[in-house]
Amino acid sequence: MASNEELKVLVEKSIQTDIQALLAAKEQTKKTMLEDPNPTNVTAFNKASKMLEDKMQEVQNLLSSKDVLKYIEEKNRKVKKTKLYEDINKGLLKKQADGSFRLRDVDKYLLSLPMLGTSDIFAEKASERQRRKEEQEIRRLTAVASKEEFDLSVKQGKFIEKEKVYQELAARVVTLGMQIKTAFEVNAIELVELVEGNPKKTNTLKQKLTEIFETSLAEYAKEMEIEVIFTQNEETHEPINTGENARGETK
Fold it and tell me: Model-level pTM?
């Protein structure tokens, strides 16, 4: 049974033979196309050219991590075998389904590696810089994604502007104040009659006032549609309220 090295040699020879066959096929279809450039011949030429291009791309792939290590060394770069495997697992160097590595991916990976002859301390610093750069990129992408999610939530009406919240609260306070004032006016006669000017009935007065407040606050706590319109006093330049409509909505 052939060893792995022998099989590798046989595979490489087979690939070279494939390339020669595809090259011959391309030349043949080219000749046919030039003699009679009809759609069928043109399609056959394009197909043969694509097959040759794909096979040439396969030749440019490094078949294993061992080939990658050798290629890295030839490019005057250095990386330990364990680090290479770690980087492959992290996705820093993409591995193809057949276990090979595209040459352009390896060349890109080379940029993160120190030159041969570089001290281990310098190499570690370079690796640390690369790691921080990758973390910063992850944080940037995460921030962009969070902003897009927030913008979408705003468009979906899940958030409102802070200024609008303050305006809504201000309108509700005005409404509450008017409700309490109105409650006092409505109950004024009853309050006078209730205590009869007698200081000993102070507790009775307090209880009644508490009832009025609680009733007003209960109304305030209900969901309501409030529309408050402020106009400016021409003399004092202070905002004044214009009144209350029939539904209890302040305008």
Answer: 0.30
Characterize 94-126 residue by residue with b for buried, 16 or more Cβ atoms within 10 angstroms of its Cβ, and e for exposed: ebeeeebbbeebbeebbebbbeeeeeeeebeee
CB count within 10 Å of CB 16 equals 12
pLDDT digits (tens, 9 = 90+) for 12-37: 667 668 878 888 898 999 999 999 98
- Cβ atoms of 241 and 250 within 8 Å: the answer is yes
Tokens of 241: 């309220």
Closest CA to 102 of 53, 62, 144: 62
- Give the span between the Cα atoms of 109 and 189, in whole angstroms: 89
Phi, psi of 110 (to 5 degrees): -60, -30
Reading the block at residue 9, the tokens are 């040699």
Tokens of residue 107, six digits: 């060349």
